[in-house]
Amino acid sequence: MKIEIAEHKKLAHSMELDVRWGDMDAMGHVNNAVYFRYMESVRVEWMRAVGCEPSPKGQGPVIVNAFCNFYRQLEYPARLLLKLYVSDPARTTFETWTTIERLDQPGVLAAAGGATVIWVDFPAQKAVPLPDWMRALVL
């Protein structure tokens, strides 16, 4: 299945990742929960690449919801291409979107999902406005 990412979503980061033997379940394909780990991996790698290193004594991102649509089964062995898109900065949140495809099947999505990120003051345990530097990255 081919899916186009809407124009308002901005490609922020991509990475390659290997399916590990332990990612599979008893049915012989990647367990659905592992797809969320894959999406987390590309999201965290992007945040680290842009200098977002949250501290429990400061501010940073928290995921408030996540979803994934599964189109094709993934199995070991496989090398994956994950692409992270960002969009829709609001006062305290922005959206992330991830596509997952096998490198040997370019353009054919195995899964696509996303997550809403909220910016939080960790000591106060409350949402705060997105910092200007993060807003600029998401616009």
pLDDT < 50 stretches: none
Number of helices: 2
Mean pLDDT: 94
Kindly report the name of the CATH homologous superfamily: Hotdog Thioesterase
Named CATH topology: Thiol Ester Dehydrase, Chain A
Shape: elongated
Total of domains:
1
Family: Belongs to the 4-hydroxybenzoyl-CoA thioesterase family.
GO molecular function, one term: hydrolase activity
Protein name: Thioesterase family protein
Organism: Diaphorobacter limosus
Outline the fold blueprint.
Elements: E1 10-18, H1 32-49, E2 59-70, E3 79-87, E4 93-102, E5 109-121, E6 126-127, H2 132-138
Antiparallel strand pairs: 1-3, 2-5, 3-4, 4-5, 5-6
Throw out a few tags for this protein:
single chain, 139 residues, alpha+beta, Thiol Ester Dehydrase, Chain A, 18% helix, elongated, hydrolase activity
How would you describe this structure to a colleague?
The chain has helices at 32-49, 132-138; strands at residues 10-18, 59-70, 79-87, 93-102, 109-121, 126-127. It has 139 residues and is α+β, with helices and mostly antiparallel strands. It has one domain (10-138): Hotdog Thioesterase (Thiol Ester Dehydrase, Chain A, Roll). Strands 1, 2, 3, 4, 5 and 6 form a six-stranded antiparallel beta sheet that branches.
Give a short overview.
The chain is α+β, with helices and mostly antiparallel strands and 139 residues long. The two termini are 28 Å apart.
